[in-house]
């Protein structure tokens, strides 16, 4: 029999740090440093540094909102608190509309890395992606404590491999590869920053887990702070060796990490990077499933979904009905992707634009709700930045704008 009690408080700051890192670091770490260096040259290092600094006020706003007002609704709950039930409903449905579109392609990217090791085809890649999603759902179903411990182990393994890559490549760094520092001008640095923005998304997932922290007021800022420092050090270290070794000039930037390790270790590098790509992609899938299930649960508590989705598992204390719902949704999209040979680019572009709009709503909500001046300033800065980047999303922005228009018309009494 299901339970309607409270979510179990079992997340420590260490588990929160691992889950946050897992949400932020994705497969982009394998390709973005080389792509950025190809666009801006050595000045791409400045792009990474500046994006890390720009993401800091967003992080600060999320930390203050999540720790002061722990609610598994996350940004949707903050939007409701700031602008009323209509905006809260809109933020939640924007996230739900993006989840089934963006999650399967993320799993598929990791599966493609794995299948490249064994020469498996597209059918096997889709099966492997489905297995990855099912694994994440199963671990999340058993409880956030087990989920957090598994994420801590996986993220530690990823960081160890990336440290190994950096240390192995230090001997290949040449001072000549840092000159000229600005081969393509300042415009290239700005263009690179807009590309790297997506490497700094995912911090908001901790908001959906806020109710399950043992001490949210203390542990959430600790988790986000530790994750911020680790993520930025890893990004800068990888970018440094990619630029310093000049490996990005040798051909396809998508395999630059393979080439980088081959400089020292030869063919086994392909196996290492293939496994790393698969595991790196598992981390955001795992954390996003955890976050989305809590959001669905919170929205059901508010009456936006059937009450059964607001029930918890009697043994594990998890929103099991929401987790079960994700299985057919995601597997159906994977099947359609295989059957229709869908292009992954729009399947990633649409949810990216949608989340930028969600960030905009969430950050302006923080600017209105937070009682301290520093928090309001951080929210305002981050909301403005998110809105500016959203404006450059191209036709992908039409999807979230259509969802927003529908909800304003459909639930206009809640907005006006």
UniProtKB/TrEMBL annotation:
GO terms for molecular function: transmembrane transporter activity. It comes from the Bacteria. It is found in: Cell membrane. The chain crosses the membrane at residues 12-37, 43-63, 90-111, 117-140, 152-171, 191-210, 222-248, 268-291, 322-341, 347-367, 379-409. GO terms for cellular component: plasma membrane. The keyword Methyltransferase does not apply. Keywords: Cell membrane, Membrane, Transmembrane, Transmembrane helix. It is a multi-pass membrane protein. InterPro entries: AA/rel_permease1 (IPR002293), APC_superfamily (IPR050367). This is Amino acid permease.
């Amino acid at each position: 029999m299901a339970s309607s009690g409270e979510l179990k408080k079992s997340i420590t700051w260490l588990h929160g740090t691992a889950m946050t890192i897992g949400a932020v670091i994705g497969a982009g770490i394998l390709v973005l440093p080389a792509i950025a260096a190809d666009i801006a040259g050595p000045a791409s290092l400045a792009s990474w540094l500046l994006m890390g600094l720009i993401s800091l006020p967003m992080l600060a706003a999320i930390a203050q909102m999540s720790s002061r007002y722990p609610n598994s609704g996350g940004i949707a709950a903050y939007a409701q608190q700031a602008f009323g039930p209509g905006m809260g409903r809109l933020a939640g449905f924007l996230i739900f509309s993006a989840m089934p579109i963006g999650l399967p392609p993320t799993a598929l990217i990791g599966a493609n890395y794995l299948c490249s090791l064994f020469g498996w085809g597209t059918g096997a890649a889709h099966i492997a992606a489905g297995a990855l999603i099912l694994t994440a759902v199963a671990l999340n179903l058993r409880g956030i404590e087990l989920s957090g411990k598994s994420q801590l182990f996986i993220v530690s393994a990823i960081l160890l491999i990336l440290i190994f890559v950096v240390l192995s490549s230090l001997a290949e760094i040449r001072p000549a590869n840092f000159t000229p520092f600005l081969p393509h001008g300042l415009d290239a640095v700005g263009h690179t920053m807009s590309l790297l923005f997506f490497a700094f998304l995912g911090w908001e997932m901790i908001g959906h887990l806020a109710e399950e922290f043992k001490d949210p007021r203390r542990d959430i800022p600790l988790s986000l702070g530790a994750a911020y420092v680790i993520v930025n050090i890893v990004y800068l270290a990888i970018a440094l060796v990619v630029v310093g070794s000049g490996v990005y000039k040798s051909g396809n930037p998508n395999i630059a990490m393979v080439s980088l390790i081959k400089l020292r270790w030869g063919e086994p590098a392909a196996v290492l990077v293939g496994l790393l790509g698969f595991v790196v992609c598992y981390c955001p899938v795992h954390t996003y499933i955890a976050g989305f299930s809590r959001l669905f649960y919170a929205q059901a508590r508010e009456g936006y979904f059937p009450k059964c989705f607001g029930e918890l598992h009697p043994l594990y204390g998890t929103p099991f009905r929401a987790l079960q719902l994700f299985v057919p949704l995601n597997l159906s999209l994977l099947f359609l992707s295989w059957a229709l040979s869908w292009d992954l680019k729009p399947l990633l572009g649409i949810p990216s634009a949608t989340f930028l709009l969600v960030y905009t709503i969430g950050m302006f909500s923080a600017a209105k709700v937070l009682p301290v001046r520093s928090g309001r300033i951080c929210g305002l800065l981050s909301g403005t930045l998110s809105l500016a980047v959203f404006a450059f999303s191209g036709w992908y922005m039409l999807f979230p704008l259509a969802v927003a228009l529908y909800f304003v018309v459909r639930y206009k009494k809640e907005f006006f």
